[in-house]
Amino acid sequence: MIPSVNPSGSDTGGLLYYLYETGKYEDHTDPHLVASFDGMSPDPGRDPNATLTDLQQLLDQPVMALAKHRRPAKHVWHTSVRADPGDRILSDEEWAGIARRIVAATGIDPGAGQSGCRWAAVRHADDHIHIVATLVTEDGHRPDDFRSGTRAQAEARLIEKELGLHQVAPGDGTAAQRPTSAEHHKAKRQGRERTAREELRETVRRAVAGASGEEEFFARLTAAGLLIRQRTAPSGDLLGYKVALPDDRNKDGEPVFYPGARLAPDLSLPRIRERWSGDTQDQDTQALPPDGTVLTGPGAPAAARRTTASAAWRAVLVIEHSDDSAAAASIASAGEVLDALAKTSAAHTRHELRDAARAYERASRSHVRAERGHDRALRQAARDLIHAGPALDRGEDGASTAMAIDMLFFLITATMHWHAKKGHAQQAAAARQTAEHLRAAYRTAAAQPLTALYQRGRHLTRPQLQQQTTVLRQTLPELAEKILTEPGWYALAATITDAEASGHDPAALLTDAARRRELTTADSISDVLVWRIRQIADLPADTPDKDTRMAHRTRTQPPAPGRHHGAENPASNTR
């Protein structure tokens, strides 16, 4: 059950008109009162002699009783309370009880002899009600409605338990502001699938992903077609920004601008600048190249995905073994990588990757302060993905995409466990949802390259297969028989053969790949080992491609001394 509080309206009559309107909105059926402050308020939905003006004047009476200069400019408090889609349909009496509990918990009408505000609860759909109140108490004072949204959420958690409804994970105040009912209906009128707020949040997130500074960030916003207003100090220093969709206008025909902080807590300009400041800190990040260097040339998209897999593996180690502030930085920057990968993905994986990035947005923030700098590898990976450009859905591009998704699945799973240990219920749930989208994207991305490797394995000579079988049984005796029964065994045999041809010790690679993470819960141990070995040994993800290998080692500027091009990447073991 989700209460969505909007405490800053100014037109009681306009809001009531919207709630009782049945001609424009499909879900507005049979609007009527289920409860009110006195239990006797006129109901324009059921009483033919009652009008919206009657109800409006009754609710506004304490406001109008004040001297004009004392009347609050914004005196309307409004919240919708919506049940989960899986919940049973509640009766009017149950919704009435919910409304009374919400107004009491939020301080709108506290009861127990205390002076309260006038309010009415309107039901015009099976799954939710709207509560309208005017923010002047019967004795002419402002109600104690401080943090009414948080108080409404806390009461909703109690109501869910008592009525046997779906229990929503408790939040911690770090979630992005939900679109209001008015924004949802405006989007529907405009033919949008999502509200302007949601579209802007995603566009700004993508613009931030891997950006090296303000100039690049605002250039990306402009290229995305957004309208931008910048707020500057008298000195000329930039203090903040607002963005708007060109076709999202108010009643006066003016663009509706949203400050970055209203889109999400981490999209304010000061919070974005924290990411850039971390890029210049001296950290032990295996001598990552300075900002401004990007992967270019043939095979760059595949090389960027290899960089992503390597960075994701290092981030897993940070989350599992570093302090909370370093872990929080990696968790936050994982969102940039998901946005960048979704933006540059091939058509057949784009939908699931975009859904993964959207779901992860909630998992990327908590009250644990991120210490920037530890996330440089992930931010560089996001930058590489953006600048390398879109990947094809075949060959090395397709295979390296599967490899990157596989490792990101592992990173998101580590994030889910970290949040769960901290008691961050909403973030853990969001990470779990992200992982499911990545699981689906992986299956799509991996189908072609694994099939190609499978076919190569099927064409190995009998002596070659016998040799690889012997290596497997000697190296992983506890897993060998299960692996040999999997369809993916032939892809693994081809991978072992490739590694041996490149001068690697197959037994050492198998040992290294297997001990990085447990394998017993994997749907296909063979698939997991294929990606781990190909990443550890720096093998082409699909077929040997000279241009791709060169791009993996070539940037617009020479890499910093000591740059490590190899990768350590255990693949996801929970697919």
Mind explaining what this structure looks like?
This protein starts with a strand and ends in a 23-residue tail after the last helix. It is α+β, with helices and mostly antiparallel strands and 575 residues long. The strands form two sheets. Strands 1-3-5-4-2 form a five-stranded antiparallel beta sheet, with helices on both faces. Strands 6-7-8 form a three-stranded antiparallel beta sheet. Helices cover 51% and strands 9% of the residues. The protein folds into three domains: 167 residues, BirA Bifunctional Protein, domain 2; 87 residues, no CATH class; 272 residues, no CATH class. The chain is built from 21 helices and eight strands.
Gap between N and C termini:
31 Å
Q: Care to count the β-strands?
A: 8
Strand content: 5-15%
Count of separate structural domains: 3
Low-confidence stretches: 282-292, 545-574
* Global Rg: 28 Å
List the strand order in the largest sheet. 1-3-5-4-2
Main sheet specs? 5 strands, antiparallel
Helix content estimate: 40-55%
Number of helices: 21
Element pattern in H and E? EHEHEHEEHHHHEEEHHHHHHHHHHHHHH
Q: From the structure provided, what is the oligomeric state, counting identical versus distinct chains?
A: single chain
Class per helix and strand makeup: alpha+beta
Shape: elongated
User: How confident overall, as mean pLDDT?
Assistant: 87
